């Protein structure tokens, strides 16, 4: 099965909030026909209504893919709507944080191919990164199909152990929020140094976006790129002495941040 089969047999999206919309936007931009998409969501957004996809309509009996993008806490209410598609040719892909593959096998049938994925919201502009792992019934073809689908909205990496998903969630699933907060903080700090709010925000956004693009494109490591900015005894050195402090700078703060998110992912499994 490939993306043409997805267009032919249909894609069902269970839950289309922030993450579901980010991915759907990427697929529609990439050419997936709206007529091939069925969304189940009790509260469809204006954006979703305007896309022209089927919303809360009769579902195809055997779609190529069901993408599950509801909150982990809503899973029990939401899964019965798609349970009849289990144990057939449909591939289930869940992006829910915390919810383990075993929970989907219980709800959708032990023979169902299931891929657990952790994407992130830059998928909306084709710049996401998604980690995936399949259950024993997910064939090589199923994994390739999941990778094809998710590659349409950014990079895909495969995990070999479901236990890695909590750490992945702490780094890249939640990570965009850390970076957005860094933009907010840089802009606020610029204001504190006398810049107008709009200018401070423009400088902060462009700096984070440009540094990210350079980090991705350059041959050098991020550490070397940092050194390239840092003139001896110059301004960057003065700033980094605060930011890189091992006691109260970014290293312990980021370690605690990622740990807290990963711990929460572990807790969600047990909720
Ligand atoms: N927002 C993010 O950055 C990321 C979110 N995720 C995961 O994606 C999933 C969705 O998260 P968000 O999109 O942020 O949440 P959200 O709250 O924006 O979207 C959830 C959607 O599910 C719908 N919904 C509620 N009950 C339903 C039901 N019974 N049947 C069908 N739809 C139902 C809601 O109306 C809403 O539109 C979560 O499991 C989360 O862990 C994963 C990676 C990143
Ligand atoms: O905050 C959350 O629980 C979800 C999972 C990763 C990003 N957002």
UniProtKB/TrEMBL annotation:
It catalyses: L-proline + NADP(+) = (S)-1-pyrroline-5-carboxylate + NADPH + 2 H(+); L-proline + NAD(+) = (S)-1-pyrroline-5-carboxylate + NADH + 2 H(+). GO terms for molecular function: pyrroline-5-carboxylate reductase activity. The keyword NADP applies. NADP(+) binds at residues 14-19, 69-72. It is found in: Cytoplasm. Gene3D superfamilies: NAD(P)-binding Rossmann-like Domain, ProC C-terminal domain-like. Catalyzes the reduction of 1-pyrroline-5-carboxylate (PCA) to L-proline. This is Pyrroline-5-carboxylate reductase. The lineage of its organism: Bacteria, Pseudomonadati, Pseudomonadota, Alphaproteobacteria, Rhodobacterales.
